[in-house]
Amino acid sequence: MYVEERNYTLQVGKAAEYFKNYEEFGMKVQLRHLPHMVGYYVTEVGAQNVVTHLWAYDDLNQRDKCRAAMQADPDWQAYLPKNRPLMVSQETRIMKCAPFFVERLKKMLAAVK
Fold first, then answer.
1. Which among 12, 15, 14 has a CA at the least distance from the CA of 42?
2. Phi and psi at residue 66, in whole multiples of 5°?
3. Please, what's the largest Cα pairwise distance for the chain?
4. Which residue from 45, 12, 31, 11 is spatially nearest to 79, judged by alpha carbons?
5. Neighbour tally for 34: CB within 10 Å
6. 33-92 pLDDT, tens per residue?
7. Which of 24, 15, 25 is nearest to 86 (CA)?
8. Crossing angle between the packed helical segments 74-83 and 60-72, to the nearest 10 degrees
9. ∠ CA(52), CA(53), CA(54), 5° rounding?
10. d(C-alpha 24, C-alpha 27), whole Å
11. How far apart are the first and last CA of the chain?
12. DSSP-assigned letter for residue 48
């Protein structure tokens, strides 16, 4: 399994607006297309104004297909102009689960369904 970590640094003071837009317009589209939201976080200590979200995929082909479907969704295209102007930068990492963690992650994800 793979976990994608996406970090967005936001403009100072824009986190509340970002979260409002995401909850109202973006999250439902992502949940429609992406298989597993592992978490959605904002920094409390350390670099400030950073939003991190994690998504799990069975493999990288699944990720490519899911993200392509989401990008093609008109609801996603309508959402992007609401939050992109609030972002300063983006960083994405894709991580492969350690062998001993795969089954634990699968159980965690199954518990959420």
1. 15
2. -65, -45
3. 40
4. 31
5. 19
6. 998 999 999 999 999 999 999 999 999 999 999 999 999 999 999 999 999 999 999 999
7. 15
8. 80
9. 130
10. 7
11. 17
12. S
The span from the CA of 86 to the CA of 94, in Å, is 24
pLDDT number for residue 109: 87
- Classify domain 2-112 by CATH number: 3.30.70.100
Show the tokens assigned to 77: 């295209």
pLDDT at 100: 94
What phi and psi values does residue 46 have, to the nearest 5 degrees?
105, -150
Which tokens go with 68?
């392509």
- Asked whether the beta carbons of 60 and 20 are under 8 A apart, the reply is no
Looking at residue 113, what is its pLDDT? 61
**Domain ranges across the chain:** 2-112
Alpha-carbon separation of residue 11 from 20, 23, 45, 82, 112 (angstroms): 15, 18, 17, 14, 32
> Does the global pTM surpass 0.70?
yes
